[in-house]
Design goal:
This protein has a single domain (2-23, 40-168), classed as Sandwich (Jelly Rolls). 20% of the residues lie in helices and 36% in strands. The protein has helices at residues 10-23, 57-70, 142-147; strands at 2-4, 30-33, 36-39, 43-48, 76-82, 89-92, 102-108, 111-117, 128-132, 137-140, 148-152, 162-168. It has a six-stranded antiparallel sheet. A four-stranded antiparallel sheet has the order 6-11-8-9. The chain starts with a strand and ends in a 5-residue tail after the last strand. The structure holds 2-oxoglutaric acid. The site of 2-oxoglutaric acid has 10 residues, from strand 5, strand 11 and strand 12.
Length: 173
C-alpha cells in the first residue's frame, strides 16, 4: 500500500466534489445477508468507459495524473458517498480485483480507514488506522488485495459527507 497525502490540492478537490455531486446519479445499494436484503449504509455509483455515467472533465484530469504517476491505465471509477459518520463500509477485501491496482482518492470529511491482514493469511493480526482527508490518495496493489482487508467504520462525531473514488481496472491488462 502507498499513501500520497494531499495528492489533490484543496481547490481541485472542491471542484471535483462540486462536479460529482452535480452529475452523478447515486444508487441506494443493497446486499443479501443471511437470506435478508439489507441496505448498504452509503450511496454508490459506477462511472467510466462504456458506462451510462461517463467520465467528467475533472475525473478525466485526475485519471490522467494517476496514470502518469502509476504507469498503468484505469477504465472505471467506483464512487462511494458517506452522507455523514453514520455511513460506513464493513470489513472486506477487493479480492475480485486481486493482482491489479486500485487508486483510492478521498474527498470531503476526514474518515478513519482501517486495514488488517485477512484471517487466512500468515500475518500477525493487527489493525492499522489511517486518517484520510480531502485530497489524500491510497494506492493498493496485488499483494495488499490478496492478504489484507479494509473498512471505514461508523464515527458518530463526523457530521459532514465524504466521497471516496476507487479508480479500477476492469478491462485493463
Ligand atoms: O471509502 C473508502 O475509503 C473505501 C471504499 C472501499 O472499500 C471500496 O470501494 O471497496
Amino acid at each position: 500500500m502507498a499513501f500520497y497525502p494531499a495528492f489533490l490540492d484543496f481547490e481541485d478537490g472542491d471542484a471535483l466534489v462540486t462536479e460529482l455531486l452535480a452529475t452523478t446519479k447515486f444508487a441506494a445499494d443493497s446486499r443479501l445477508m443471511y437470506g435478508k436484503r439489507v441496505a448498504v449504509p452509503r450511496e454508490t455509483a459506477g462511472r467510466g468507459d462504456r458506462m451510462s455515467q461517463p467520465w467528467t472533465p475533472h475525473l478525466l484530469a485526475v485519471r490522467e495524473r494517476l496514470e502518469a504517476l502509476l504507469g498503468t491505465g484505469f477504465d472505471y471509477v467506483f464512487v462511494n458517498r458517506y452522507r455523514d459518520g453514520r455511513d460506513s463500509v464493513a470489513w472486506h477485501g477487493d479480492h475480485e480485483i486481486s493482482g491489479k491496482v486500485v487508486a483510492s482518492l478521498s474527498l470531503g470529511a476526514t474518515r478513519e480507514f482501517d486495514f488488517r491482514p485477512k484471517r487466512e493469511s500468515d500475518l500477525r493480526p493487527r489493525t492499522i488506522a489511517l486518517d484520510l482527508a480531502h485530497g489524500d490518495l491510497v494506492v493498493m496493489r496485488g499483494e495488499t488485495q490478496r492478504y489484507w482487508e479494509h473498512r471505514v467504520r461508523k464515527d458518530p462525531r463526523v457530521r459532514e459527507a465524504r466521497i471516496n473514488l476507487t479508480f479500477r481496472q476492469h478491462h485493463v491488462r
